[in-house]
Amino acid sequence: MSYNSFMPMTEDGKSKVEKEATAREAWKLLVGLVYPPRFLEIARKLGLTPAQLGAVRLLDEPRTMGEIATFLHCDPSNVTGIVDGLEERGFAERRPAEHDRRVKLIALSAEGRRLRARLTREIERPPEWLAGLSAADQRTLRDLLRRAAEATG
User: Cα–Cα distance between 91 and 83 in angstroms, integer?
Assistant: First the structure.
């Protein structure tokens, strides 16, 4: 009897260790293809820092500095510089919140909304590596990712 005969097996006959290793490798490849390279490319193309890109993505409506910090996974003090940079370029503005004038909301200006629309188009445009796959491979990848998304709830 071999060592493998004592290992729990998955429905496709692979050991759980093999399945976990395959999942880790797939995840590493997916992350390496999408983040950070794609987002850095888009940020560079739009003349933004990665943090500014993240803030612009979040600002579909006015947000507090704390909300931006939570989204960007950074300290609220770092958001000041990010918002200052967006404000200096005319993309965002600070406004007092209606419910409490001591609270400042960050909102995109008209120019910032145009930038956000462009950013959205850039993010939705498939990267070259994906566009270069055959139609059949693109469908297979889409179907696999759709099943994975559905499995998350």
Answer: 9
